[in-house]
Amino acid sequence: MAIRERMSGNEAVAFAMKQINPDVVAAFPITPSTEIPQYFSTYVSNGEVDTEFIAVESEHSAMSACIGAQAAGGRAMTATSANGLALMWECLYIAACSRLPIVMAVVNRTMSGPLNIHNDHSDSMGARDSGWIQLYSENNQEAYDNMLMAHRIAEHPSVMLPVMVCQDGFITSHAVENIELVEDDKVKAFVGEYNPVHYLLNRDNPISMGPLDHFTHTFEHKRQQAQAMMNAKNVILEVAREFEKLTGRKYGFFEEYRTEDAETVIVVLNSTAGTVKYVVDQMRKEGKKVGLIKPRVYRPFPVDEIASALSRFKAIAVMDKADSFNAAGGPLFTDVTSAMYAKSVFGPKVINYIYGLGGRDVRTDDIELVFNNLLKIVETGEVGSVYNYLGVRE
Amino acid sequence: MSCKSCNLERKELSPDVTWKDITEGGTIADAGNAVLIKTGEWRSKRPVWLKDKCKQCLLCFPVCPDSSIPVNSEGNREDFDYDHCKGCGICVKVCPFKAIDFVDEG
Amino acid sequence: MGKVVEIRWHGRGGQGAKTASLLLADVAFYTGKYIQGFPEYGPERMGAPMTAYNRISDERLTIHSNIYEPDYVVVTDDTLLTSVDVTAGLKEDGAIIINTTKSPEEIRPLLKGYKGKVCTVDAKTISIETLGRYFPNTPMLGAVVKVSQVMDEKEFLEHMEESFRHKFAKKPEVIEGNMKALKRAMQEVKEI
Questions:
Q1: Is residue C51 within 8 angstroms of chain A, CB to CB?
Q2: What interface predicted TM-score (ipTM) does this complex get?
Q3: Nearest CA to CA, how far is A272 from chain C (Å)?
Q4: Domains detected in chain C
Q5: Can you tell me the mean pLDDT for C25-41?
């Protein structure tokens, strides 16, 4: 039987890490992810895990230590936010190209400046092309579940890529909510042991890692890395099926909420998807055919599946909690519309809203405004402005 | 899948390896495979061991960056490994007995 | 969809309004509810006004916005009444619960024409008399449960006792004082 508990998003992630009991955790505190290494270091000092906890002097060192530990043959984890993630930058690429399946909890916070500790997705969106798999989480439950699945995805022989598990800073990281936990022994059995093929501390089979590659070999390595990201798609679904058998909780590339007969949908990541669900329920009572598509897997981007799912609707609003500053639309919007174009899905009208930057609260009225605009587009056939801002003072 | 069975130690060195065959992340399987790269082709000047002048003091051997001065089981140096010697000339500078000549290649 | 009870807490950094909201979430969780307890982080300075929130429901909660139209507002420090618009959006059929030595009649004129129920409790005196120190959280928690009836009172007290036994396992002498503080606040909270 699952364990019914109440926990904040950060506690849930730290608890998952305790159950996973990795070989190494190297971390540096940064709001709002600080609590994760804080809780975890308590587990270490209480002897509840036998992890080597490395209190480093920066996030660059945290990721470097994880790279070293994982290359040596261990299972390494860390957590960070915003500028901490930015300070890891060069190491993110090295972890991914070295095919080191590190798992990192990212508690989304806006990138400075202006200086702000609150939530948006500018940190992890900036890292979207670093070669890491990115999973997004609506609430504490999903952050916990994604953490439990992350190692299975990352360490699969056909993948061998690092994974970021993202959740919204403060909004879910510091909100205490109900959660169902999986028993320790079941987590242990599900996650399993990490048995790398190549690792530095293998005396029977010594190797070198990270050699000079140049134009003779780098392109082949990048092509191979791209293949791993493609392979990850099947693995993510396989692991989700197994996880469903264990917990009854179903996960895919994205969640569809009340979309069966929907004419308009919002596409949005993380906690705002929960608020959209609430608004969908309210508007459905008034007979409005609205729904939600909530991507869980952003890297790899499920191009075929998302384009096919979206082809059924008349008007779609893609909501981005990060601006690309490309004068055209946010990252999720760009990916969604590219997917639709590439798959020749030209029917639906698609618009973009940049919302919630720097932790601006997203109210139910904001979401209603978006749906009402979509319903107007369906009624009139007129799209109007494609690239929009929601909730900014005009 | 081990390195030995998939024979990766050869694949990553080949200049025409495909992305399907190249090792993940550029991992080089098996230690000591530098011997497979014949860096001797890079040499423009060539050290020549003058055996008669050599006192076997072995000051040359430790300074060679390419392990191209073999030392036998009796503890004596032998002739250069020209497959790997890049012709840097450090051994020439170090030799107190002018027992290593340095000549143009070709 | 069942009724969701929404509560907004106003306090000052360091006074424990966040802790109180989390305690309320905890006890509601133990009585089988779906809960949310979350603070709104501002400057995080001792003494600075801060806000925390609770949602308590019989059904799963998905909404992740702040609370703009609360059923109940709790003010853990009456000096906030002049600087913070504590009744903003507060439902007229709800109530505001204030930690103060003043009576509800004295408080009402400070509430910008709020027409709903005004409740007061002297958490300071209760805290000092039962705990020997000023911890307004425990009495405020008792007052909120009494006024909101968000859970059964008997069940609430049972769960709190259990929770105190767990929390104060190493100093059981304070359990009785905390229970007294809860019960006294539940009895002494005044309303108009």
A1: no
A2: 0.93
A3: 6
A4: 5-191 (3.40.920.10)
A5: 93
